[in-house]
Amino acid sequence: PGPLVESGGGSVQAGGSLRLSCAASGYNYRSYCLAWFRQALGQEREGVAVLGRAGSTKYKNSVKGRFTISQDNADDTLYLQMNNLKPEDTAMYYCAAAREGCYTLSEMAFTYWGQGTQVTVSL
What was the pLDDT predicted at 54? Predict the structure, then answer.
C-alpha cells in the first residue's frame, strides 16, 4: 500500500465541525485496522478512534457521541467526522494503520502513519 496522507484540518470555533480525510489506498478495513490519533502540544500522542477489521469501532471516551470514524469502500479514504468541537480537541491529528493486533487505541499497535493535519479549536 501507498502512504497515508491526511487533509481537512483547520481552525474552527468551539461547537463547530470538521471532517478529516486520510488517503489510504490499499488499506481497506477488511485487511487493516485503521485509526485516528492526536497529539496536543507538549502532550503524548493518544488514540481517538479505531475502525477494526470487522467494521467495528472504538472511541476515546471524551469524543464519544461527537466523532465518527468511517471508510469509503470505493477508494479506501478514511474519515473522521468531528462535531461539537471543543478547545481541548486542538491537536495534530494522524491516521494510522496496522495488520494485526490493532483493535486498540494504543499507538504501539500501529505500523503505518501519516504526517498529520492540524486542528485548532478556539472559544
Answer: 87
